[in-house]
From TrEMBL:
Assigned GO CC terms: membrane
UniProt cross-references to InterPro entries, sorted A to Z: AA-Vitamin_Transporters (IPR050638), EamA_dom (IPR000620), EmrE-like (IPR037185)
Keyword Transmembrane recorded: yes
Name of the protein this chain belongs to: Permease of the drug/metabolite transporter (DMT) superfamily
Keywords, alphabetical: Membrane, Transmembrane, Transmembrane helix
Species name: Natronobacterium texcoconense
Residues annotated as transmembrane: 35-56, 68-90, 96-118, 125-142, 154-174, 186-206, 218-238, 250-269, 275-291
Localization: Membrane
Main location as per UniProt: membrane
Membrane topology: Multi-pass membrane protein
A Pfam family assignment: EamA
Keyword Ribosomal protein: no
Length: 310
């Protein structure tokens, strides 16, 4: 029963995060990009902070000391602000499916950053090949034209790649900081801090503030879905599954989510995934399998042992 529960929650999480890219594309018709991302995390941060205060004991919902606030700062700047600012701006000129596939490179980049920042843990030749394979997948999807490297579509995909890189680097740095901060607290304060950073960026970019446009039903629906379903519910599911499944299995959600993105994007936005994008996705998944080959082998052996006992 627990196995079916985990599988159901895994698919639910993939659906929440996969369809989030479609909600972003829909909301960008009504909101300026960075402000849209900031509003999303205004709401999600408040919800997560309330959840942390309700579920944690004493004052565990509040960070203490330099290390705990350092983790929050990294989360706010890289995991929330940089990731979503790059993603939302980039997704203005690319499809939801292409964005979801490019973001799926994040687990590969996370391994690359982790090994680069810990020299004693350097990647093997095969591991380097896996990272390069993932990057080739990005190049296939982006299709850069050397004669026009400032083409809107290429720049958009490059920005989404920067989003994936920001998230990967932030994930590594938060793990390197020695802090015993509850994950709910870290996420809540990172969301609120990231929202403040994005509000500042939005003001610096001179994005228009037009509340009248935000009352459109599609705008309100996209914002509510991203804040409450993709962010608040999505992260709660992620934390639960991370504890039950471990990092290797939960990373696989990055490769299931684009399937939901492609289906819902086609149904709601009329976006079609071309063969080149599918090829790039296959290369990224292959890169992940090469980089994580030992962990995947151990995971498969573990699953086989469980099934053999039943």
């Amino acid at each position: 029963m627990s196995r079916y529960r985990n599988f159901g929650l895994f698919l639910t999480l993939a659906a929440c995060w996969g369809t989030a890219f479609v909600a972003i594309s829909a909301g960008l018709e009504h909101f300026p990009p960075v402000l849209f991302a900031a509003l999303r995390y205004d709401v999600a941060g408040i919800v997560m902070l309330a959840y942390a205060a309700y579920t944690l004991e004493g004052d565990e919902w509040l960070p203490h000391g330099r290390d705990e606030w350092a983790v929050v700062a990294v989360g706010a700047v890289l995991l929330i602000a940089a990731y979503h600012a790059f993603l939302f701006v980039g997704q203005q000129n690319t499809t939801a499916a292409a964005a979801a596939i490019l973001v799926s490179l994040s687990p590969v980049l996370t391994t690359g950053f982790a090994r680069a920042l810990v020299p004693s843990d350097a990647l093997s030749v095969v591991g380097v090949f896996g990272v390069v394979l993932g990057l080739v997948g990005v190049a296939v999807i982006s299709q850069p034209d050397p004669a026009d490297l400032l083409a809107p579509d290429f720049v958009a995909k490059l920005l989404v790649f920067c989003a994936a890189a920001s998230f990967a680097l932030g994930s590594v740095l938060t793990r390197r900081i020695d802090a015993s901060l509850p994950i709910e607290t870290m996420e809540a304060w990172s969301m609120l801090g990231g929202a403040l950073v994005m509000h500042a960026i939005s003001l610096g970019l001179g994005e228009p503030i037009e509340p009248a446009a935000w009352t459109h039903p599609e705008a309100l629906g996209a914002l509510a879905y991203l804040a409450l379903v993709a962010s608040a519910l999505g992260f709660l599911l992620y934390f639960d599954l991370l504890e039950r499944l471990g990092a290797v299995e939960i990373n696989m959600v990055s490769y299931v989510a684009p399937i939901f993105t492609a289906i819902v994007g086609w149904l709601y936005l009329g976006e079609v995934v071309d063969a080149t994008t599918l090829l790039g996705f296959a290369l990224i998944v292959a890169g992940f399998a090469v980089v994580k080959r030992r962990a995947l082998r151990e995971e498969f052996d573990h699953v086989n042992r469980i099934y053999s006992r039943e």
